[in-house]
Write a structure and sequence with these properties.
The protein has 484 residues and is α/β, with parallel strands linked by helices. It folds into two domains: 276 residues, Aldehyde Dehydrogenase, Chain A, domain 1, CATH 3.40.605; 193 residues, Aldehyde Dehydrogenase, Chain A, domain 2 (3-Layer(aba) Sandwich). The chain contains 16 helices and 25 strands. Helix 10 links the parallel strand 13 and strand 14. Helix 3 packs antiparallel against helix 5, helix 4 packs across helix 5 and helix 10 crosses helix 11. The longest helix is centred in the first third of the chain and has 25 residues.
């Protein structure tokens, strides 16, 4: 039986209170997670604050960059360990985790180390009222102790997406991974220790939200800022906690993303792209597509092609050759998704494919598998068209004009991402400017340049991370004015 311990001030810390970590593929217990209480969170904050005053706080940028490169190299050296941990926690296909989660998780440290090393600040010279001269310039200082609240869908990648820039900027961090996926955040503690990151710089506290590590951490007065990826309701709760002390937040929250396919699109590429955006990682991607709008001349053909793709996805555990659809993260989430499948039928949807549970054999019959599902025929007011499901499903509706599809795509409280398929360059630019989202892909999906802004509009988030935009959250920009 594995034990996932808290990592505080360079040591692994056990507690008397534990909870089970279960494998999504078969619901078997794979370990016990040691839940942090108020005392452990206090200790982590104390250690993180002390590290800011110690060796880490005095360290040069060059040395910090060297250490973060070493972290990335050690993750890659232990690639198989991180991959095994991620697969056990999430159940996602090995091909997906080995090509995205682990490599990108490691790369985040090098990317942000390079950005911090190379990005300048501003400077200005001005005449003073008395005829003299003054020069002002910007200096970036660390925000301080940063609470990093992580999701379960891409545990390592989305955690290091925040830890990487936070550490590169000279902050210390306290990570609260999802209770569903504790393994890689814990394993990263071993890496930090191995490469010589000073004690207290990287800390991990395990637990839940209310009356547990999440609440204790976000309400702690010793935390200087909070970054969170997850559902919008949780973000609202964290934002309320952050209001006391007027602490900054950076949120990437929920979405109900639209995919838009025009009749002039490269048909095969559009089908392949929408297949990925709807069903990759079993639909558990915040940037994924749950609403598909297809221009009427190709609507029936597109629905048939997407149906064929969905039915061709091989369902199974991580290591099954050719598997394209793994399990959902938990029994609770499976019931949520199946609840929406039932709602769609009750509201009158035409079930093009799926809508239930696949026939799994042996131990996998206890896993959290659901069918890839496509609906048509629902009004825009239907629950499965309005509400985030976070499963392998989509509703497809026809449209006629640009103006019509823009109105439908924007008729949501969310504004995270969209994917648009057209070969008309003018239309591509018009659509990109009209859709109210933080990220817009044209003829692609999930293609990322880590130097660019990442974040959502409306109910999908606050702030931007990525490239120099991460520096805007993880540092305080101080102005220095010198009169000659």
């Amino acid at each position: 039986m594995k034990h996932f311990l808290n990592f505080i001030n360079g040591d692994f810390v056990a507690t008397d209170k534990t909870f089970e970590n279960r494998a999504p593929v078969n619901n078997q217990v794979i370990g016990l997670v040691h839940e942090a209480g108020q005392a452990e969170v206090d200790a982590a904050v104390k250690a993180a604050r002390a590290a800011l005053k110690g060796e880490w706080g005095q360290m040069s940028v060059v040395k910090r960059v060297e250490l973060l490169y070493a972290v990335a190299d050690e993750i890659n050296r232990r690639f198989d360990d991180f991959l095994a941990a991620e697969l056990a926690d999430t159940g996602k296909p090995r091909s997906l985790a080995s090509h995205i989660d682990i490599p990108r998780g490691a790369a985040n440290f090098k990317v942000f180390a390079d950005i911090v090393k190379n990005v300048p600040t501003e400077s200005f010279q001005m005449a003073t009222p008395d005829g003299g001269t003054a020069v002002s310039y910007g200096v970036r200082s660390p925000l301080g102790v940063v609470a990093v609240i992580c999701p379960w869908n891409l545990p390592l990648l989305l955690m290091t997406w925040k830890v990487g820039p936070a550490l590169a900027c000279g902050n210390t961090v306290i990570v609260k991974p999802s209770e569903e996926t504790p393994a890689t955040a814990t394993l990263l503690g071993e890496v930090m220790k191995k490469v010589g990151i000073p004690d207290g710089v990287y800390n991990v506290v395990h637990g839940f939200g209310p009356n547990s590590a999440g609440e204790f951490l976000t309400k702690h007065p010793g935390v200087n800022g909070i970054t969170f990826t997850g559902e919008t309701r949780t973000g609202e709760t964290i934002m309320a906690a952050a209001a006391k002390g007027v602490r900054p937040v950076s949120f990437e929250l929920g979405g109900k993303n639209a995919g838009i396919v025009f009749a002039d699109a490269d048909f095969d590429k559009a089908v392949a792209g929408i297949t990925r955006s709807c069903f990759e990682n079993c639909g558990q991607v915040c940037l994924g597509t749950e609403r598909v709008y297809v221009q009427r001349p190709i609507f029936d053909r597109f629905v048939a092609a997407l149906k064929e793709k969905a039915e061709g996805l091989k369902v199974g555990p991580s290591d099954m050759p050719g598997v394209g659809l793994g399990p959902l993260i938990s029994a609770e989430h499976k019931q949520k998704v199946l609840g929406y499948y039932a709602k769609a039928k009750a509201e009158g949807a035409m079930v093009v494919t799926g809508g239930g549970v696949p026939d799994m054999q042996g131990e996998f019959a206890n896993g959290h598998f659901v069918q890839a599902t496509i609906w048509t025929g629902l009004p825009e007011t239907a629950s499965v068209v309005r509400e985030e499901i976070f499963g392998p499903c989509c509703h497809i509706a026809p449209f006629d004009t640009e103006a019509e599809v823009i109105a439908m795509a924007n008729a949501t409280d969310y504004g995270l991402a969209t994917t648009i398929w057209t070969q008309d360059l003018g239309r591509a630019h018009r659509m990109a400017n009209a859709i109210e989202v933080g990220l817009c892909w044209i003829n692609s999906w999930f293609l990322r340049d880590l130097r660019t802004a990442f974040g959502g509009a409306k109910g999908s988030g606050i702030g931007r991370e990525g490239g120099v935009h991460s520096l805007e959250f993880y540092t305080e920009l101080r102005n220095v004015m010198i009169k000659y």
